[in-house]
Design goal:
With about 425 residues, the protein is an alpha/beta fold. The chain has 14 helices and 15 strands. It starts with a strand and ends with a helix.
Length: about 425
């Protein structure tokens, strides 16, 4: 596969040279530059200097999950804004290098190694995907390199900080999302028969598990299940099998490409009209639009971020800043594409974490991201903030249900703090 590297940076050539000099000799295995004195003595300082910090991201810019390639574009715009108008974070300008893994785990590890051992990054930020980030996690923890704010809701990012102290997630866990859907059906359709379509990996299995646990002992029953592989060209056979179940509800646990296929197949089958619940990662209008908004009315999902296409946020301070600066620093991007705003929000989260560093080291970064107290990054929904402890590696665990009406999502109900709701 052709390898893509994108340098998303506002750092000057001189500054880049300074950064390279400061990292000279580092191998990304804890034997690189360290702090010589003070409370941070002996901690890893590869990739961070007085005026700069270098981050690396891994995304599927190509392949079956390439829709996610819009996320780093939003991050780039945010970091360019921070560098140009805030002078960086605590005086350090951010260089962000993006690599393409095509959503292939072996390639993800290869690109992580390139970022750590050749590019000398301070941290891996926003590796995307469950199978791909799982492969990177083993490498990052072996090398003692932060893998921060993973772009996946798999439970493994926060479930065992002892075994994986260098990895932490960001978005709500898939387990929590599944529980929210289960609780919703127990209230709204207490005798529902549910057909489940899910991706056959940790992503799909986690969300399914959360849903199944939530409906235990209730009248809501799973009557049919089908899985698919990310390499499958089509899920039409699975959708036909699920339709034969005559279930009242379709729980659609897919990534964008397959989300579009599932919605299209559902719309085409006029003999089956289930309530269609689609998971957050496949809820973008870019997934729905190819099917036709008129054919996806009343589907349900969950959100933790403000929708840039929702008029209720037109005068919102954070949304106005996002639109203004996205236009200024990435003029060709559509501000209404949620993956752009997701990137903006995650970039804001990283800025907040870097700003709290007591030790400008890799160890200091992990300590900072495991001690977040009601920290808001831009574009989070009201009532949603980042909270972590040394034992809790899930920064965001609040979700709100939404229903698609007209040409946009409409929030309904109240935000659900899954820590409090489900323990």
């Amino acid at each position: 596969m052709h390898t893509k590297t994108i340098r998303l940076t506002s750092v000057t050539a001189a500054l880049a040279a300074l950064l390279a000099a400061s990292a000279c000799g580092g191998r990304g295995d804890g034997s690189g530059p360290t702090v010589a004195q003070g409370e941070c003595k002996g901690q890893q300082a590869t990739g961070i200097a007085e005026k700069s910090v270098k981050l690396g991201g891994i995304y599927p810019l190509s392949g079956p999950a390439s829709a996610y390639g819009d996320i780093p574009k939003g991050i780039k715009a945010y970091f360019d804004y921070v560098n140009a108008e805030k002078g960086g974070v605590n005086g350090r300008k951010i260089e962000f290098i993006v690599r393409d893994d095509g959503y292939q785990p072996p390639k993800s590890v290869e690109e992580a190694r390139r970022l750590v051992e050749q590019e000398q990054v301070f941290a891996l930020f926003q590796t995307l995907g469950t199978p791909t980030s799982s492969a990177v996690m083993e490498y990052a923890n072996k090398k003692k390199v932060p893998q921060v704010f993973v772009s996946s809701g798999a439970s493994k990012w926060g479930s065992d900080p002892v075994a994986h102290p260098w990895t932490i997630g960001w978005q709500p866990s898939y387990l929590s999302e599944g529980r929210v859907y289960g609780q919703y059906l127990k209230t709204e359709k207490p005798n529902a028969k549910v057909a489940v379509l899910y991706q056959n990996d940790d992503f799909g299995k986690d969300l399914r598990e959360g849903f199944v646990k939530a409906i235990e002992g209730s009248g809501v029953k799973v009557v049919a299940e089908q899985t698919y592989e990310v390499t499958d060209p089509s899920i039409d056979p699975q959708m036909r099998n699920l339709a034969n179940s005559r279930a009242d509800v379709l729980l659609d646990i897919t990534t964008p490409k397959f989300g579009t296929q599932a919605l299209a197949a559902d719309a085409k089958n006029t003999d089956w009209n289930p309530l269609h619940i689609i998971n957050n990662v496949a809820s973008s209008p870019t997934v729905l639009r190819p099917v036709g908004f008129g054919k996806v009315q009343d589907i349900v999902s969950a959100a933790f971020l403000k929708d840039p296409s929702d008029p209720q946020w037109a005068d919102d301070t954070e949304m106005r800043l996002y639109r203004e600066k996205l236009k200024k620093y990435a003029g060709g991007l559509d501000p209404q594409i949620p993956y752009h705003s997701l990137g903006w929000a995650s970039g804001s989260a990283m800025e907040k974490a870097l700003a709290t560093l007591k030790c400008p080291t890799r160890e200091g970064l992990m300590k900072a991201v495991r001690d977040l107290k009601d920290v808001r990054s831009d574009l989070l929904l009201p009532g949603v903030s980042m909270n972590t402890t040394a034992q809790d590696g899930f920064p965001i665990e609040t979700l709100q249900l939404q229903r698609f009406k007209g040409e946009r999502w409409n929030l309904f109900g109240q935000p659900v703090d899954t820590r409090k709701a489900f323990g």
